[in-house]
Amino acid sequence: PIAQxxxxxxxxxxxxxxxNNTSRFADTYLWNFGDGSISKAQNPEYxxxxxxxxxxxxxxxxxxxxxxxTQIVEIYQKPVxxxxxxxxxxxxxxxxxxxxxxxxxxxxxxxxxxxxxxxxIAQTDTxxxxxxxxxxxxxxxxxxxxxxxxxxxxxxxxxxxVRVEPAGEIRYPTxxxxxxxxxxxxGGQEVSNISASEINRYFxxxxxxxxxxxxxxxxxxxxxxxxETIDINTGWTGxxxxxxxxxxxxxxxxxxxxxxxxxxxxAGDITLLY
Length: 274
Description:
By secondary structure, this protein is an all-beta fold.
């Protein structure tokens, strides 16, 4: 008999091989897969679950004796993709998201941030962790794909998204008409529950979220302080010491800190109209 089988390709674990036995003049077959496993099938299928170099031996018997044929197959180590990221909530164009690469057996890494951008980092680099700053609000799932030089790969998708929120912003109107029936007002009014029909009768920033620290002052043309608050939900009614201020242009000054930690300081003027 003549033992023979088609060439086998090397591959990444787990690697399944379908053997094609081309032996001639044989009656029985004994396969030794090099890892302690055997088969007596004529054309067996076998899966390697461990990495290594394996000597595959086929022994055939038939009229006139026996014969053997061997090949060596390389089973490559498959990488294991794994990472953590922090923080899971950021603001637009602010703090970067840091990904801690905990992968095994990788030679290069592809980070896909979920917003259309990606970064590739090689194992030869000093740092294989990755950082990304998001420029649009939304929820984004990070994906890491790990590659080896032998062509093996593994992919991991984060089990929760990065939440990107808009940065804080403050905008002020340039004029408002006060409530003429607010005699006795100290100048301040909680505006978070004011109806839409009444909201324009108070001076306040219409964007009220994403601001942690806040200090608003309003002065008349002689520099006298007529209103002050540290509550962003409190607007000026147009009154001072219980009396309606006269129609005029007033100067406002506001300073504080957005929720992303960035300080702000702005000034402008507001026209009080009857």
